[in-house]
């Protein structure tokens, strides 16, 4: 039986190259000031493809905003192929490579609107001259959800949002209008 207190980093994704590894550590291990391994692993296997750039920029956002950034409880960071398939994820998802997370942000106990989170992450990406994928899932896009943000570090910019009418490809976050 697998030890459910331990996680495994199976690869390190540096975006321009992959380093194969097998690093075992407690799920409670801090990967940064505010994120533990448990928050980043595929919850069905406790495995992780670790992308340091994704953690770096997410931790920076957490530190500077003071927001609690949640990537668990129905949200995810890394996903293995089976888990990604089982939850209906895209077969080309950046989650499969450890380059993406879905998150909800909270400030003083209140959820921050996903669009505000998207602007925060986009400004950090642009300051580094990096590329990213941002998806804004607006509150009630599915009839009930409070919304969340998808964020990935990647090779080309891609912005989109979901509302009750479905997915919309956009060139700028300014194209998202709030009710």
Features:
179 residues; 22% helix; alpha+beta; seven-stranded mixed β-sheet; 4 helices
Textual characterization of the structure:
This protein is of the alpha+beta class and 179 residues long. The chain is 22% helix and 33% strand. The strands form 2 sheets. Strands 4, 5, 6, 7, 8, 9 and 10 form a 7-stranded mixed sheet that branches. Strands 2-1-3 form a 3-stranded mixed sheet. It is globular. The protein starts with 5 loop residues before the first strand and ends in a 9-residue tail after the last strand. The model has no long low-confidence stretch (mean pLDDT 95).
Q: How confident overall, as mean pLDDT?
A: 95
The biggest beta sheet reads: 7 strands, mixed
Low-confidence residue ranges: none
Question: Please, how many helices?
Answer: 4
Estimate the strand proportion. 25-35%
* CA-based gyration radius: 16 Å
Q: What letter string, H or E per element, gives the SSE order?
A: EEHEHEHEEHEEEE
The helicity comes to: 10-25%
Overall 3D form? globular
Terminal CA distance: 50 Å
Number of strands: 10
Coarse structural class: alpha+beta
């Amino acid at each position: 039986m697998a030890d459910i207190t331990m996680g495994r980093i199976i690869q390190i994704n540096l975006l321009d190259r992959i380093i194969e590894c097998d690093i075992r550590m407690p799920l409670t291990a801090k990967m940064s000031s505010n994120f533990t391994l448990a928050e980043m692993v595929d919850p069905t296997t406790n495995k992780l493809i670790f992308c340091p750039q994704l953690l770096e920029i997410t931790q920076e956002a957490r530190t500077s905003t003071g927001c609690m950034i949640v990537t668990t409880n129905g949200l995810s960071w890394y996903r293995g192929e089976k888990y990604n398939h089982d939850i209906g994820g895209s077969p080309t998802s950046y989650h499969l490579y450890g380059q993406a997370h879905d998150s909800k942000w909270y400030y003083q106990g209140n959820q921050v609107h996903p669009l505000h989170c998207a602007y925060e992450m986009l400004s950090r990406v642009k300051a580094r001259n990096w590329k990213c994928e941002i998806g804004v899932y607006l509150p009630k896009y599915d009839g009930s959800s409070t919304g969340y943000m998808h964020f990935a570090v990647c090779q080309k910019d891609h912005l989109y949002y979901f509302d009750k009418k479905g997915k919309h490809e956009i060139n700028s976050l300014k194209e998202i209008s709030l009710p």
